[in-house]
Write a structure and sequence with these properties.
heterodimer; A: Rossmann fold; 5 domains; about 15% strand; B: alpha+beta; 8 helices; binds flavin mononucleotide; binds iron/sulfur cluster; binds FE2/S2 (inorganic) cluster
């Protein structure tokens, strides 16, 4: 490779873009550059996710500051010819604003990017995660060096406390205090763990950090090891995150060869190393005690606390667990100081939070914003508003342990306290935006179904409770419930919250309780009027074929699993015989002429 | 090579293809120093090699790691990613994570079920496809997502699943 390249192409190779074909695009790009003899002049750099996965595969070209989106291999020859040979950006592939449709000429033009504040994700999309040199060039491992060479463990603890950082894995426990507890625990052998189980089915911030900037987490764990007196760390990563595991392994190997892990780091007599442990698909393993069981090779069954992990954790030794995002804040805090961090955010919630923005907003993806930003700014600023300009109904925050925030609270600041006050939680940071086409009862049922699948079965309130609540919600969705069922539902939820052994059961009812609180009228519509206002609950809708639109192609009839769509006598049109219809909706989905109505 | 008494007990042909697989699994366990802590890693490897967690594989692992078969079985059945029955040539993995759900994953499942004539979790009679679901496969940006074998398909539409599968039927 030549010393100086005229252009740098930052090609995203995060999971989202890879799924959309980033590797094929990269191969084609290399081939075309080779063909034109440009390989020496133009550098392709694989990066992690910059949060705009929906527009993948994405590529930024520097220093021209040209943003490309949704690249296809077939675009590449033209792109190389136009941009790299003739110096004209290839217009058809440039990123456009989802709202105005204008081409994005700089980051500042794009609300999605310009309103963010990046600390955790500062390197994602900028460095090649498989090259430690690039991390180091961006001040990587500087914090570790500073800690080992200039600070005592007590100084590190003080700095973290000063930052006001709280755990990003769910509960929001103050990180400085957690570290202090491990530091104070007696014994020579202590363990620290990074929780990369990311179980919330709509969250992917931890994955993006691990895929896009794995060294950050390694550096932070070493810092924690030094501050607390632990010399061994584990990263517990879910098996589904194959790319993250691969990049972590590469990063660990590089860190070891640079002497940033292993024995006698920075010649300060401090030993630290990290091992990766892979899960096997169980949400409950995100819970601390279950996670430790799983690391030891057992079923992931939670244990009663106390004893807390800092008293008796892995193999009976003091252990302390933090979430990936929590760790990812640490190097910045050490470099810039706890005070600088505490200057961001609200009184009790400091710093930034990463959210996985999904659902019916124009811009979905990963965003990092200062704590205390309002939901309105996220949905209508960064998110670009609701698709098709429909009305905002609610946001669901915190996944299966969280709750919803209705439209009247759009101006609530997003931080730990305000959200808890509304019956939701900041949680892991999954944020699903819903409009009038989403049914709140159905959403509650979706999360409860998740909890039925994921309840580990150890304690009865959770094992039986989740199933009964799910059944009740199903009867409501099917229009078969009576009003008394709502009271039963509420009682069951409260019982499960109070009597379950671990956090899964204690919080599993939150989505139900919060939708009951803010959207009781939707429950009532399902029960009293046998109607799903959003037209989502299948049993309460009727499918019919609009005669004037039907072309008689017969696709619906062939796809109907119960063969209840017939040709009308003497006409090239079809109709549905309602008695046998099981309301699967196949006909609605397959008709190419929008001739099937759903009411 | 597989120890002869263990081979006899588990009815493993000591000189066939199977023996090579067992040997490879044994090598992996040796790397882990036969530590019972590594059970989950070993089961991942076993499933990868044998396609599913057969009874003899579970017994072999239990023996080699010196843990009760009940514990091996308990772990193998606890975690969603392990399966004790063979799967089809292609796994069709429909994402049922939140992002995919709100964009219509359920309808894709109904379409696939009626297309393939199987229910969730089942394998087609010709042994070609097994229909399974997962919670978030990391492609939320292009939801709803379906993974067939190793290919990820994004922004899947129910009416296009037939076309999506055609590519795999010929092979
Ligand atoms: C059922 C359940 C699932 C959880 N899943 C996760 C998870 O996937 N990732 C995570 O970081 N924390 C998860 N947690 C929270 C952890 O138990 C723990 O509080 C967290 O990892 C502590 O790290 P923090 O202080 O940095 O937030 C879960 C908790 C419960 C009860
Ligand atoms: S698929 Fe649509 S157009 Fe074709 S027969 Fe059915 S309703 Fe008519
Ligand atoms: S909804 Fe399902 S059962 Fe009813 S007509 Fe359409 S395809 Fe047939
Ligand atoms: S994976 Fe490419 S932007 Fe997220
Ligand atoms: S929710 Fe389907 S890929 Fe994440």
């Amino acid at each position: 490779m030549a010393e100086f390249q005229r252009l740098h192409c930052f090609l995203c190779t995060g999971s989202g873009c890879v799924a959309a074909g980033a590797f094929d695009v990269r191969d084609k790009l290399r081939e075309e550059l080779e063909k034109h003899g440009l390989s020496e002049e133009i550098d392709i750099i694989d990066t992690g996710c910059a949060g705009l996965c929906e527009r993948g595969p994405r590529m930024n070209v520097w220093p021209d500051e040209i943003y490309y989106a949704q690249l296809q291999t077939k675009d590449i020859p033209k792109l190389v010819e136009e941009h790299f040979l003739k110096g004209r950006p290839y217009e058809p592939c440039r990123m456009t604003d989802t709202v105005s449709g204008d081409i994005i000429a700089s980051e500042m033009d794009f609300q999605f990017l310009s309103k963010q504040r990046r600390i955790v994700l500062e390197n994602c999309g900028v460095v090649n995660p498989e090259h430690i040199e690039e991390y180091i060039a961006r001040d990587g491992y500087l914090a570790l060096g500073k800690v080992l060479c200039e600070l005592q463990p007590a100084d590190v603890l003080a700095e973290i406390k000063k930052s006001g950082l709280r755990g990003r894995g769910g509960a929001g426990f103050p990180t400085g205090l957690k570290w202090q507890l491990l530091h104070d625990a007696p014994g020579d052998t202590k363990y620290i763990v990074c929780n990369a189980d990311e179980g919330d089915p709509g969250a992917f911030m931890d994955r993006s950090v691990l895929e896009g900037d794995p060294h950050r987490v390694i550096e932070a764990m070493a810092i924690k090891g030094y501050a607390t007196g632990a010399s061994k760390g584990f990263i517990y990563c879910r098996a589904e995150y194959a790319l993250a595991i691969l990049r972590l392994n590469i990063a660990l190997k590089q860190a070891r060869s640079y002497g940033l892990l292993g024995k006698n780091l920075f010649e300060r007599g401090f030993d630290f190393d990290i091992e990766i442990r892979v899960g096997a698909g169980a949400f409950v393993c995100g819970e601390e005690t279950a996670l430790m069981q799983s690391i030891e090779g057992h079923r992931g069954h939670p244990m009663p606390r106390p004893p807390f992990p800092t008293q008796k954790g892995l193999w009976g030794k003091p252990t302390s667990i933090n979430n990936v995002e929590t760790y990812a804040n640490i190097p910045w805090i050490i470099r810039q100081g706890g005070e600088a961090y505490a200057a961001i955010g609200t009184e009790k919630s400091k710093g930034t939070k990463v959210f996985a923005l999904a659902g019916n907003v124009r811009n979905t993806g990963l965003i990092e914003v200062p704590m205390g930003i309002t939901l309105r700014e996220i949905v209508f600023g960064i998110g670009g508003g609701i698709v098709e300009d429909r009305a905002f109904k609610a946001a669901q925050a915190g996944g299966p342990s969280g709750g919803c925030i209705p439209a009247e609270h759009l101006d609530t600041p997003l931080d730990y306290e305000s959200l808890t006050g509304l019956g939701a939680i900041l949680g892991s940071g999954g944020l699903i935006i819903m409009d009038e086409t989403s049914c709140m009862v159905d959403v509650a049922r979706f999360f409860m179904e998740f909890c039925v699948d994921e309840s580990c079965g150890k304690c009865v309130p959770c094992r039986a409770g989740t199933r009964q609540i799910w059944q009740l919600l199903t009867t409501i969705c099917n229009g078969e419930a009576v009003m008394e069922d709502l009271d039963r539902l509420e009682k069951l939820c409260l019982m499960m919250r109070d009597m379950s052994l671990c956090g899964l059961g204690m919080t599993a009812a939150n989505p139900v309780l919060s939708t009951l609180r803010h959207f009781r009228h939707e429950y009532e519509a399902h029960i009293k009027d046998k109607r799903c206002p959003a037209g989502v609950c299948r049993k309460l809708v009727t499918f019919s074929i609009a005669k004037e639109k039907c072309t008689g192609c017969g696709v619906c009839s062939r796809n109907c699993p119960v063969d209840t769509i017939f040709k009308m006598d003497g006409e090239r049109k079809y109709h549905i015989v309602q008695d046998a219809c099981i309301k699967c909706g196949s006909c609605f989905d397959v008709c190419n002429f929008d001739a099937v109505n759903k009411e | 090579m597989v120890q002869s008494d263990l081979a006899r007990e588990l009815d493993i042909d000591r000189f066939g293809v199977e023996a090579v697989l067992f040997k490879a699994l044994d090598d992996f366990m040796a790397e882990q120093q036969y530590s019972p802590d590594s059970l989950i890693e070993v089961l991942h490897r076993g499933q990868e090699m044998f396609g599913y967690l057969r009874e003899d594989v579970l017994k072999y692992v239990a023996r080699k790691l010196s843990v009760p078969l009940a514990r091996v079985y308990g772990v193998a059945t606890f975690y969603h990613l392990f399966h004790l029955k063979p799967h089809g040539k292609y796994e069709i993995l429909v994402c049922m994570g939140t992002a995919c759900y709100v964009r219509g994953a359920e309808r894709i499942i109904s379409a696939l079920e009626s297309q393939l004539g199987v229910k969730m979790g089942e394998t087609t009679n010709d042994g070609l496809f097994t229909l399974i679901c997962a919670r978030c496969i990391g492609a939320c940006g292009i939801a709803p997502a379906v993974k067939v074998g190793t290919d990820v398909h994004g922004k899947v539409e129910a009416k296009k699943v037939r076309r999506m599968l055609r590519k795999y039927e010929g092979k």
